[in-house]
Amino acid sequence: MKKVMASLTAAAILISSPTLAKTSAEVSKEAVKTAESKAKATQEQIHIVKEAVEAVVLTKKVLIDLEKKDLKKAKEDLEKAIGKLEVILAFKNAPLMLPIDSEVVAVEYTGDLKSIKESLELVKDLLDKNKVQDARRILDTLQSEIDIITINLPLASYPQALKLAAKYLNEGKIKEAEDVLDMALNTLVKEITVIPIPILKAQALVDAASKIAKKDKNQAIKHLEEAKRQLKIAEALGYTSTSDTTYKMLYDAIEKLEKEIKGKNRSEKLFENLIEKLKEFKEKAIRTLHSSEANQ
């Protein structure tokens, strides 16, 4: 009987005890995980155009055929490649860019502000000594982002290039045909949507702090301090935003919130304003970059 009573008492304590607030590290980790899932969902919605993929594969095959001196096979494969793209061109609203591949890559910087500053100083020193490649390798480590990468075939120019190559082959101009095919492959466009992780974390931390500010002041302030630290990391890593809101304005807003929570704690409106500013700041910090595959 005593054991039963003890069990019931323990259960009552567990039920009545408040749920422990998540730590800042847990909030940050969940924010990154959620963002990665959303990025993958976006990537999965990108419609890979099968015919465009096959046309690129055949283009590469033509170059292999020519390397093997098999002109007949080269002409056949090139004709097939052109045919694949003709199918797409037949559609009234064919897109100018045809996705042929996509992936999501996440790189999270785990260092602190001091490490970033030290790395940047080293980069400057290396560049002063004209050690560009050594500097580039260090700069490549200064990333904290989720990238949605898509490779596109330009429909406006790629089919024309293949037709020109076919003309050269029929005229026996093998070298000219190879040059045109190489050029066509180099016109594939890499599109990268860059989502800064530190800004994602800051947004999630401020949102988490707003939900517990009344019942757990200490943890709410810890969240805000970590949000401010993440924003400083984002700024140090060079992630900019086209928003009218600046990093300084965000730091000031967080500090104002911290004082309010420690005082009368009438922070609802302040949280609303900061969450809205951070949302806009993050959305306008997400960039889409374009580059030729030839430069990769």
From TrEMBL:
Give the source species: Hydrogenothermus marinus
The name this protein goes by in its record: YfdX protein
Entry superkingdom: Bacteria
Q: Which residues form a coiled coil?
A: 25-88, 210-284
The alphabetized UniProt keywords are: Coiled coil, Signal
The residue range of the signal peptide is 1-21
